[in-house]
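Reference record
================
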Amino acid sequence: MKQQADIGLVGLAVMGENLILNMESKGFTVACFNRTVSKVDDFINGRGRGKKLIGCHSIEEFVKCLVKPRKIMLMVKAGKAVDDFIEKLVPHLEKGDIVIDGGNSHYPDTNRRTKMMEERGLLYVGTGVSGGEEGALNGPSIMPGGSPAAWPSVKPVLQAISAHIGKTPCCEWMGKDGAGHFVKMVHNGIEYGDMQLICEAYHIMAQGLGMSAGEMHEVLAGWNKGVLDSYLVEITRDILAKVDPETGRPLVDVILDTAGQKGTGKWTSQAGLDLGIAIPQIAEAVFARCLSAIKEERVAASRLLPGPGKKFEGDRKNFIEKLHDAVYASKVCSYAQGYQLLRAASKEFGWDLKFGPIAMIWRGGCIIRATFLGKIKEAFDKNHGLANLLLDPYFGKVIKDSQDSWRDVIKTAVDLGIPVPAMGTALNYYDSYRCERLPANLLQAQRDYFGAHTYERVDKPRGQFFHTKWTGTGGTTAASTYTV
């Protein structure tokens, strides 16, 4: 068969189909393949009718119609399915051909696959793609990493189909191995935190202030015109205006309060533990979903466990202004934690991540796109070695100006018995980060008492460790000093 497709894509679910149509609209001829071959014909004769697409019914046919070096994008379920397709493709590929995994793969898998493919003379790209169905069709945020030698070949396609801010594509090379999928994972972790913050604000307004969905719609519409302007605030505004055609009630009120998750928030939390970076706000957002899942237990507990039973008695308009500031301050802390994780991973894995450009890649197309990402880029442009976003003058001022409102909102939520795990954890993170002396000195004493784990002293140089015979018994041997 004549080689005529610029790129091939495997996996004709919604994301795959939309990416194919996006590629074709940018002038590329795309070969299409799916394990269930009938889906190929349905797509070619349906949404793909009359377009520059080549429907293929076998892997052999699919590979043969691609120009060299072949570029094949996989849009299949993360995990074993990716490995299975790679093994099916590899016998048909030649040196220098490129496989692109566009799913939400875990970055250690991408590390492993990149090494394996390079050992076979092939190139591998693990790329995060964010933006959902609409983004895939009209321009997502794309975060590629893997084999650096693959970037010149895939760059024209990936940058062409990505979202753009002005003329700048929301797609740039992240780094070797699993860097792209790591950045996408952190993006999703921040997304968990953002969504939870908005949900907590909704909970306070609905349960604490007794506001209707229509009233909350108006609040979110106002928020989306200022510093909180973002995709997630925008869609929340729209959700609150939607009426259920069956009951005539706001649709949000008839949706069961149990949240699902696909694992990227959990992976982000695990990465924080692995790298020793505090990202409690993201972890709390994951745990909030876990708590939501035990609906029957919560219903039973609500009848047995008492709460404060208080009602809000303040100025509602003034409190909503404070709530706005509390959400913004908490949002800053969430991104600060995410960027600290990126910074640690960049150092640990030698990725040399570019933090300012990452903010701009997230500025369009993706789920966490927000106006204030431009401020994050400015912060890292001024100081690439910035240890924490909270230390940047702009974000420091945001926290300073919002702090009283932030604390008042959390106090009110506690008084009303409304849970605010992400918002409260954000404040605890801020207070811990600014605390010159934490009670870890007592913790180290406890560890040394029961396990001879040693401690450092404030009056001795760092790196010198000491052990005390707390009970006057036992030997002089101390445990080795290490941090997991």
User: Anything to note?
Assistant: The first strand starts at residue 7 and ends at 10. Strands lie at 7-10, 30-33, 53-55, 71-74, 98-101, 123-130, 141-146, 164-165, 168-169, 175-176. The longest helix spans residues 316-349. The mean pLDDT is 94.
